[in-house]
Write a structure and sequence with these properties.
Layout (H helix, E strand, L loop, with lengths): L1 H15 L14 E6 L7 E12 L4 E10 L6 E5 L10 E7 L4 E8 L2 E2 L2 E4 L4 E4 L13 E2 L5 H6 L7 E2 L2 E4 L7 H4 L5 E7 L5 E8 L6 H11 L3 E3 L1 E3 L2 E3 L1 E7 L5
């Protein structure tokens, strides 16, 4: 592994040794963020700004760049954030390496996360979506022993089963950008004879722009308490379909 890193770094230095004069210019003092590659190669990624004439996404008189500095080389690879991935209004929140050759630029636009990734191998930008907090649709979460089969068998609430009544509700934190538009999230929820929520399935989500909100709603619902549904006057496990409208929160 060490030999591979040495050879890779040697090749990079050779390739960059013929860089242009402007690529040898030092990084200005206006550094916003700086992080070194975790691969051990010592490659540094930097976000910095420069003053200029005109107006752009940061404001009047500023431009923003991603710079990649290789150890042992005078050359600095620069990519302007207002180019290569379109102009945008917003701010950079931070940067981090997500692999040995990919740099995540965390940014916000109108209170919405619009993260992008720069690939130091292909020298291309791509959009970034964090799917770690997404809930697969129609996949149960919660207690693995939750009585889904029993609850589904008694789904006909309104016929011989009275609906559970909500007693206590925990609200998820709603992103500001999501409050500003119409959207709804639909879940199947199993409510036990004790009035607890033991299982949830995501049935419908508007998009994957706010995957963290899908999980936040599910986590909140697992803390809700109900007066249980009744069949012939006795509490029963039952299932309800609930819809959450974040713009009404």
């Amino acid at each position: 592994m060490m030999v591979y890193r040495f050879i890779s770094m040697f090749i990079v230095i050779i390739v960059l040794s013929g860089c242009r004069a402007q690529d040898r210019e030092p990084i200005p003092q206006e550094v916003m963020f700086s992080v070194t590659s975790p691969s051990g190669g010592g490659i540094e990624a930097v976000i910095y700004t420069t003053q200029t004439d005109g107006y752009n996404f940061i404001g009047s008189g500023y431009r923003c760049f991603l710079a990649i500095r290789y150890p042992g080389s005078e050359c600095i690879l620069r990519r302007e954030l207002t180019k290569g991935f379109g102009n945008y209004e917003g701010g950079v929140l931070g940067i981090k390496w997500i692999s040995d050759h990919e740099i995540l630029v965390e940014r916000a636009i109108a209170d919405q996360r619009k993260d992008i990734v720069y690939d130091t191998k292909s020298h291309e930008w791509r959009a970034y979506t964090d799917t770690s907090s997404q809930i697969p649709e129609n996949t149960p979460i919660g207690d693995p022993d939750c009585p889904w089969d029993t609850a589904i068998a008694l789904r006909s609430i309104g016929k011989d089963v009275t609906a559970p009544k909500l007693l206590e509700r925990v609200e998820p934190e709603t992103p500001e950008g999501l409050r500003m538009r119409y959207a709804f999230y639909m879940y199947d929820v199993v409510i036990t004879v004790e009035g607890d929520v033991c299982g949830i399935k995501l049935l419908k989500s508007p998009d994957d722009q706010y995957p963290e909100y899908e999980k936040a709603v599910a986590d909140a619902m697992l803390q809700w308490t109900f007066e249980p549904g009744l069949k012939d006057g006795q509490p029963v496990d039952c299932i309800m379909t609930l819809t959450v409208h974040p713009h009404l929160r």
